[in-house]
Amino acid sequence: MDREKIIQALIDWNFWYKSQFTGVLRDYTDKVIQILKEGIVCDLVGVKRSGKSTIFNQVVKKLVEEGVNPFLTLIINFEDPRLAEINDGKKLFDLLNVYKEETGVKGKPYIFLDEVQRVKGWEGFVRSLIDRKEAFISVSGSTSKVNKGRVKEVLAGRHISLEVLPFSFKEFLNFKGVKIERQLDAIARSSEIKSLFQEYLKFGGFPMVVNSDVKEKVLLQLYDDIISKDVIEECSIKRSDKLRSLALFYISNVGNRVSLRRVSRALEIPLRTVERFTACIENSMLIHFVRPLSPSLSQMVKGERKVYSVDTGLSNVVGYRLNQNLGSLLENLVYLELRRRYGGESIYYYHGKNEVDFLILQQNEVTEAYQVTYTLNDEREMKGIREVMKRKKVRAYILTFDDEERIEENGVRIVKIWKWALGF
């Protein structure tokens, strides 16, 4: 181990001698600190460049402001090539010893392992320190492997996962310097907010894209990085051309039901390969699927899943579109906001005689229904909602871009998406 090189890398990433970039404060920061202080491992899991490293910096900054010695915080970023030799659990212990010897600090450190999926057996290292109460630990990763499989077994009962998504619309506005604290603020600045909402819908919420003057180029490069590193390299895929075709198909068809058999025939890829490739793409957290909820058991079991992208900007810029479909982008945006609020496991779509875009299931009860449309101009949107409401009275919403807000006779609320996304 090149001790001097390792120490220099740690100095560069940590708050020991200088401040680090912390960006706009996000909602995750306080949650991470709360979990850490309970003595539980906090996993930050999210697609590449969603802001996990910056959240770690925000957490450390806040801890230091609360009086924690900066040398009792340790950020290890495994994307730094100088740390490439730290590739297994044993070498993690060696690095920890170097840190302790060089800093000479006494006490229980806060350790942040960034992009930890690159280190084989990291979960054993983490469990050892947590069980002996020798450190507070948070880890991050760009693939869902960080909280699945063997990791879940080794850290059972010792960890809590937080999914990090690109900026919400509210975070996007904060980044732009637009503070909206109450509905009156939103009404007063509605023209400005609607204009920014269209930018957010078109280019999404990746922090590096929001801050860029060449948004399309950044999105294209980011997409290629995700596919190359977190899908093809991670899954050791040889037929990368077929993988790229499949990924592009999903990104281009957000809001649509997909059948793997039909995809297999259309793209001329064997079904088993489609299944494997789909799992790899989903594991990178580039796409998400929503299952059907239906009165018919066969529909529940055999029903096609709907696909959504982790960011509307990726679908809009990378996906192929014969015409601009704002409705599907709006639906994708609503899905992501529901995922932030309720988690992916609570979201379904309704498939009966008619369809409803989203149902929220909590404690085995449907509690909310959402239909998404650019403008309310036909009966399709109401038919599905009425069918659900006949079965169970739930809070029901039709979300539109800018239709007049009102409450229908059956209690269905017509709400503007840009206001709903802000929590109003």
Automatic annotation (TrEMBL):
Domain (DUF4143) ranges: 229-366
Pfam families: AAA_14 (PF13173), DUF4143 (PF13635)
Domain of life: Archaea
Domain AAA: 44-173
InterPro entries, A to Z: AAA_14, DUF4143, P-loop_NTPase
Protein's UniProt name: AAA family ATPase
Annotated source species: Stygiolobus azoricus
